[in-house]
User: What shape does this take?
Amino acid sequence: MQKNKAHEIICAVRAAAAKRGIDATFTLHCEKSHLMRIGNNSVSLNTSEILTRLDIGVINGRRTGSHTQMGDVTSQEYVEKALQIAVDKAEVASEKDYQPISAIIEAAVDENSQYDKALEQVDPSFKADAYRQIIEKVGESYNFSGSWSSGSVELFMVSTANDLTVYHLATDQDFNVVLKHPKKKWELRQAKTGWRLADFNVNDVVDGFKKLLPVYENHQGFKLEPGEYTVALGSSALAEVLMMACYTGFYGRTYEEKQGWTSKNKKGDKVLGSNINLIDDPTDDKTFTFGFDLAGKTRALFPLVKDGVMQNMMYDIHTAAKYGRELTGHTGGSTSIVMQPGSALPDLLAAVKDMGRVIYIPALHYLNMSNPSQGVFTGSSRFNAVLIEDGKVVGPIFSSRITDSFQNVFGNVRLISSEAESVNLSNTYGRRMPEASSMPGYVVAEKVKITDSADSF
Amino acid sequence: MTLSADLKKQILQNIDRVGTKGAEYTDARFYTNDDSETLFLYDGNLEANDTNFESGLGVRVLYGGAWGFAATSDAKAFDTCFEQALQNAITASKLVRVPLHMGKKPAHTGKFASPLKQDPFTVPLKEKLEFLSAIDARLKEDWIFKRYVYAEFQKKNIYFFNSEGTQVERSLSNVFAKMMVMALDSDGQMQRRSQDLFTTGKGTRGYEMLTQPELFSAHAERIKDELAQLIKADILEYGKRSVILLPGQGFLQVHETIGHPLELDRILGYELSYAGGSFVDLDSFGKLRYGSDKLTVSAFGSIENSPGSFGFDDEGTPERDYLLIDKGMLVNALSSRAMIDEANQKAGRTVFTESGGAARATAFYRAPIDRMTNVNILPGNDGTLEDIIASTEDGIVLDNPVSWSIGSNREHFHFSCEIAWEVKNGKKTRILRNPSYQGHTVEFYNSLSAVGDASTWHVGQVDNCGKGEPNQIMQLGHGIPVVRFDNVITGERK
Assistant: This one.
């Protein structure tokens, strides 16, 4: 499906390359990005970028080369020149000891079901006005910061293997605002995500802050001593931990190379608790959905963990080639990881009223794997973290570090919220490529290890 | 590549035009080229053989105390780009509680080029691959499960102009490289040893740096030998002891717990929603005893060969050598013009006298923010590594990070490392695996008890420091000697 002149040019060069016997893949990535940043109750940066990148990959026998060029595609000569750079690189490259897999567009795709023109064209003054309302309604005496990224991505991809094309057009936004008390130093956050402008509602943000503020204004912080605690992880913390668990446990690369925490297991082994179910679902509208990956493979529902049992590994085109595996739709692009909700009440406080002391950690900062082979991760609490006793919030906790394993945390989950939430996982490094997961609003796990805490928030 | 006279004229005319529409300050950075090349040999297979070419214009306009930024890769859209940046600033100015100011600076001109003998982009691909393949062949052993060696080359030509009349031309080159070997230990868990290309701070930073054996390739046999011992080693037991950080670990400790907390935009709260804040505040300067009196930390440090030496920052401010921490006392920050103006106003006194020249942008399509340059611990008087080991009763020597996790205000941290050597009664005894340590920043630096001499000091190159929104990857350096800290929590509690 050729949408514009650039697509026609790329298809023409693709056809000519195919005739010459070149094995090449062409991917055009166009983004319209806007980001507003807030600091000290003011707009600190208001930036817009319109950028186009052309990626060309070439396979020559067992040799490969690739080239990326930024700039508008306005002529056949421009694309041919970029192709020649990749061809030349592949010519000189050393041979691999396995046969690389050629990207093949498996089926034509033309998708724009998550495109909202209103979001793509939103006037920056709409964002500035929303931040102004939040500051004025919650209180000028607090220090507000935040960022609001929005934009659209167009992906167009062809290969010399056939005449099919895939096209993706979608919008996304990632809003957050942080409130910091200028003297007491605690920080609260509200976040919104989605592919429609209407997914953002300023009143929800204001109400969210107003609900939390009395807890923080009226209580001192608690310092947790190292030990084992019953911990409720909010959707954001959950997404962070589970994405790391997926990356180090369910990706073919880490599995085949024995670098992850599932390396000693095989499909069919129980690796997490029986109440844990994970799938990659590229149709879940709480995620940013992609119908194809960057190898041209059509993406479909892909179970990872069912009732705690490992089901599948995700393979990219390079790992699949190296280890002789099938492509699974996980070459580049974004996943749509979904953790199945459970049966617990959506209201966390009501759900834990008979559980005594519970530490609620909605978000984790600077998560990392201190021992990938053992599945040990570490990260510290941030934003809105509180101590709950008998279903009542007692007060905020100081910055506290969890150092524990996926197997322990997700082997001891007692409650899973029945409601799912969308968690934006996008970053704005390099090109725009939105990613989100769908997570239960919270899970409550027992015997979670808190290993350190600061004397402040 | 050079900037054509016509494009330069167009940029200068647009800066004037935006000024007549009320802009308080405007700057423009035009990248004639921003090229990179990555070569990655994994188990001998060339998995990455990539080039990336970019060029374009980034425009920043200060209007009504607020920044607007716009960028384009389309040379025909320069006028529109200036207009968009102005409009973005006008919109931003509608929500300003703390107006930003650049302060006035006289116009100046300048040129800078990274010192190099051989531009890596002129070296034939075949030659580069032969060089890396030769290292790969040296790493290969039957018992080694995985191995890799990679190199990355970067080259950018940047023309800077601002509304004060300053014009700066820079040609920046970087070479990064790393090799790693991995093998399964007695518990079937993966262990690894690695070596990054480093610099002595002297010399040139072209392709010739990569091929200097002592800076990179000569370490192949050593890391293999250490890995062979590591996979049979005991696990480090939990406990408090001294930690001696080699520069391969010390650079990241400094990066995360001195560099980031001293970025002035973080201190002022501009990174709260993403990277985090800082436990340091404006009252801390001149008062906070950050570390023991053995700790002296510089910015830039007059290092001629480092990714953190770049002549002028992305506001045109020339780099200068200054102290961040003087004999343990916090004295300065990593800063840019608007941030020092705001900090001084907020503090009601002159905390900072001039910009630290640390406004840096990763590409033409990103606006400059406060970044690290070279952040260095100055060499001390406690001798060589052997001298420091000899004076240690109970400790471990640590090298190379595996993981790092830092509190949101940089007040506490947790690191795990590739390897530890146990030290008992002044002697290195055995290798230990799965080492980790944690601490609280100020308490940790105040436990600094030994700083190695110049023979232990080298510059660690960082090619992937992330910060900011939109996110920006930055290259920088850390000149670090061997350092020892006492009474540190090491290993994991059972």
